[in-house]
Write a structure and sequence with these properties.
Length: 192
């Protein structure tokens, strides 16, 4: 587990009156805020799908934008919640091996976790970098989803949120690496 604060109540223990503590607290709030936005979008997606089902049954046709909006919303949900998943150390890995290994060899476990997070940070960084070109193209060309004359939405706001989620998750991975290398093998408090 990381020694980085896992929620806004952990940040004060790092010294909330210091500049570093304030930055840590703001970072935790940003990550949690993006996760909360992703959770709200799950409700929005459920509403969109339910409204489409009702429209198909009552009107005999689908609502405009549903398939495209649903796809973009689903991708946004995944990336907006990814940084919180990383921060809480909930990414999928072989816990059958990793957890006992970390308990038996805390230093080696911390180094292995740091390596895992470093690879994740690099992959997410490359993904974020490639997303910048897509955002630029969508914005300059006026890309949109939907059917012209019926209902359309520009795609760039969705892409910006996706990019934000990817970038924040990449930074969170870097934070996890730094925390693991600073205090290898150190156990977290009671909330671990």
């Amino acid at each position: 587990m990381s020694t980085y604060p896992t929620d806004s109540t952990d940040a004060p223990r790092l010294g909330h009156r210091t500049r570093g503590g304030q930055i840590a607290r703001a970072w935790v709030r940003l990550v949690d805020g993006l996760c909360a936005l992703g959770t709200v979008l799950i409700g929005v997606l459920m509403f969109i799908i339910s409204a489409d089902v009702v429209a198909r049954n009552l009107l005999g046709s689908s609502l405009p934008l549903v398939s495209e909006l649903g796809a973009l919303t689903l991708v946004m949900i995944v990336y907006l919640q990814l940084a919180a998943t990383v921060r809480h150390d909930r990414l999928a890995r072989t816990d059958l091996f990793f957890t006992p290994f970390k308990l038996k060899r805390p230093r080696a476990g911390a180094l292995l976790g740091a390596a895992f997070d470093a690879v994740a940070a690099a992959a997410l960084g490359m993904l974020a970098w490639s997303t910048v070109d897509i955002i630029e193209k969508d914005f300059t060309r006026g890309e949109y989803i939907g059917v012209t004359g019926i209902a359309t939405l520009p795609t760039w706001p969705f892409r910006v949120l996706i990019f934000t989620g990817i970038a924040v998750a990449a930074i969170q991975c870097v934070i996890q690496v730094i925390a693991a290398l600073r205090a290898p093998g150190e156990k977290k408090g009671a909330d671990a």
